[in-house]
Amino acid sequence: MSLKDRHTDQAFIKEKFSKISRWYDFLNSLFSLGLDHYWRWQAVRWLEGSKKVLDLCAGTLPLSKALKRWTSFKGKIIALDFALPMLIYGKTKWQDKDVLAVAGNALCLPLKDNSVDAIMVAFGVRNFADRLKGLKEMKRVLKPGGKAVILEFSHPPLPPFRALYFAYLNYLLPKIGGLVSQDKEAYQHLTASIQAFYSPKEWMQLMRQAGFSQIKHRYLTGGIVSIYVGKV
Ligand SMILES: C[S@@+](CC[C@H](N)C(=O)[O-])C[C@H]1O[C@@H](n2cnc3c(N)ncnc32)[C@H](O)[C@@H]1O
Fold first, then answer.
1. pLDDT tens for each residue of 29-47
2. CA 71 – ligand 1 centroid, Å
3. Measuring CA to CA, how many Å separate 22 from each of 43, 86, 182?
4. For the stretch 161-171, what's the b/e string if a residue is b when 16 or more beta carbons lie within 10 angstroms of its beta carbon?
5. So what's the pLDDT on residue 5?
């Protein structure tokens, strides 16, 4: 299987994230020049009033942390990821009595139908082997009226900026990521998966197909990242 085909291979993704877990937060902030904090803040603002939130593909828990620290949120969070080392590393750095970390697969959630008020996912849906199935699982566990807030990479719509960004993605990012984490392949995967991902128009269509409505989309930072909000 070529690297290009592996960006949705579950075993490969699990292995890669497990391997880079201790470098993940540092490299994330380095590569985004700290903008990742701003992107997560933009996402968690949508969830302040929710009572029970699922942090899907929670990784080292940065989104749960952002929701607890930067909003008036007072509810409970289930933080789910299939790469246990990511959750464990996150837990060693930050613990909160209202956050329950759970090992599980987003494509087969260990949760009952209609059981959470909201779902937040940052940089996770791109990795799903079956994106429609993942979205349908999200819809299944959301209570009626519940919302999903999805943060994901996208392609800047302005051609010169897009060309510059893709040059950065293809040449600089795998080199530095590989040097620091000692796993160049993981960062080549990141680059390949970003470039292969849906356009906002296609992604919103898939959300609609999965049963979401009132879908909103906003580009952040010139379109490097997109935020999607949908209701059930
Ligand atoms: C790029 S990280 C994002 C982590 C965190 N949400 C953040 O804001 O930085 C993607 C995470 O998604 C997890 N992941 C990918 N596919 C998954 C799946 N099908 N089920 C559960 N977790 C998954 C990976 O293990 C990884 O920890």
1. 988 999 999 999 999 999 9
2. 22
3. 24, 8, 12
4. eeeebeeebee
5. 55
Give the orientation angle of helix 10-31 with respect to helix 35-44, to 10 degrees: 110
Q: What is the pTM of this model?
A: 0.94
CATH number at residue 213: 3.40.50.150
CA 63 to ligand 1: nearest atom:
8
Atom of ligand 1 nearest to the CA of 14: 25
61 lines ligand 1 (CB under 6 A): no
Taking residue 194's Cβ as centre, other Cβ atoms within 10 Å add up to 20
What 3-state DSSP class applies to 4?
A: helix
Note down the domain range covering 189: 3-231
Is the distance from CB of 36 to CB of 28 less than 8 angstroms? yes
Please tell me the total count of domains within the chain: 1
Q: Of all protein residues, whose CA lies closest to atom 11 belonging to ligand 1?
A: 57
CA distance 203 to 80: 22
For ligand 1, atom 14: residue with the closest CA: 57
